[in-house]
Amino acid sequence: MIKSIELQFGSHPESQNLSFETTPVTIFVGPNNSGKSKLLTEIQEYCSNGDKNQNSKLIDTLSFLVLDKSERLKEIEKFTIKPKPGQIVAQGQILFGGREHIAQINEDLPERFLSFPNSEVYIFCRHYLSFKTLKLDALNRIWLVNQQELGDLQQAPANDLAVIFKDDKKRHEVRRIIYDAFGLYFVLDPTNGGQVRIRLSKIEPRGEYQEKGLHKEAIEFHRNALDISLASDGVKAFTVIITSIIAGEPKVTLLDEPEAFLHPSLSFKLGKEIATSAKNELNRLFVSTHSSNFLMGCIQSGAPINIARLTYSNEVGTARLLDNEKIASLMKDPLLRSTGVLSALFYNYVVVTEGDSDRAFYQEVNERLIQFSPDRAIQDCLFINAVGKDSIWKIVQPLREMGIPTVGVYDIDILKNEGNNWTNALKASHIPEISHQSLGQIRSRLKNKFDEIGKNMKKDGGISALPSSEKEAADNLFNQLEVYGIFAVRNGEVEHWLSDLEVEANKSNWLAKIFERMGANPDDQDYVKPTKGDVWDFLGRISTWMKNENRKGIPR
User: How much is the pTM?
Assistant: First the structure.
């Protein structure tokens, strides 16, 4: 029912507010404390009150879809409630709503607010959307596993379990999903004096007679099934979310960290199932998540998806949209799928290295900086690796376009990159195109100088092997690249860091040897801790670029 959302901020403090058309699924991601959960709360409040709360800091406006005539008639018929015996309804009025949200209103009012939801927004939300909005978070999911009143089955069901009990189609759909997830059959047990409770059975019930009855066979069947209150938290969470969505058929579903308590594979499955259930063109699912598995499940459902990434730093919020077209483009690239690029959406910063051993080394160096020299460390940073220097830009570019400060770390032989391999690295880091030619000329002349003097730039000391004037030119070039977040090892390659440990620079076993020399126990005398210079300052410079709110290389 929500057509579009406008937030109170955009990609930069000076940018326009982020405004976007919704798709069936919108997922809010970002680092901790970026406002994801609060945004869901503000959407819920807007859907209940028809306007933003005076304390709203994230939502600016919502607009709503207009139903066509046939859809309006269906909704009016569905939510017009028959009076109970003896209940008096004034002439010209009807009972309208659902469950505990029933009001006596003018009979012409539903047609009016469903026809003009954006001009009649207050009554549209109060009398319709408020009771068709479902918000599930870690707290209110807990009690939903409890048994509930079955109620009068001749009347409208009073709760989700009564809906599922009465509606065979919905119950069978829940059962399919739960069995696929756990290998157990979802059943509803009515044998406790007017109460209904969820059980999980190893045996599929033989029709309604066995599941819904109160006879001896039914009682024995349910006694042998597992009461969901005794199941794991993950099973409870998964079952409750699926049951609530299928039973309630909400127009707006708000899920806050649905992956809580779930194994990664279950997070994936949950994402896929609930995104599939949201394919209805009128329904809207909004999710706040920290799980790349859940996110990937949603993407693989095939449902149209928007991903909005939020950040909040130094009392400044930002928001960027990764729309369905961009998501599809990312997922088509095997490199991006295999390197876990989606995980980067949940971090403040990302460092991309040439290979896995580089990644592991720099990550360990950063961990020691966090512990012993936090001013030089990169907090909340994801380290991921490409497959060689020529593919770093493929990872850096989409992450920067999402507003994630992302650094590419190269060995010095980035100077050997020619043609597209060089310009792609510059483009991915948003170095102005007018500078590409001049930077390329300096790169080429430095490479030729190494060849001229017969020095291996990676093995023979890096830029220190150059004559003084060329060394200064190399320093200047790398300084310019670092302004835009491209960092090269000026002394050669990753294996030449911490040379005082005298570890032989052999690709095949260098990482194991350097880690052995660095030590594993911080209490040991030989444990290597950060000092001035060397790789510690190299990471420190990366950290400085990351923390600089006015850093260059991130598009607005």
Answer: 0.86
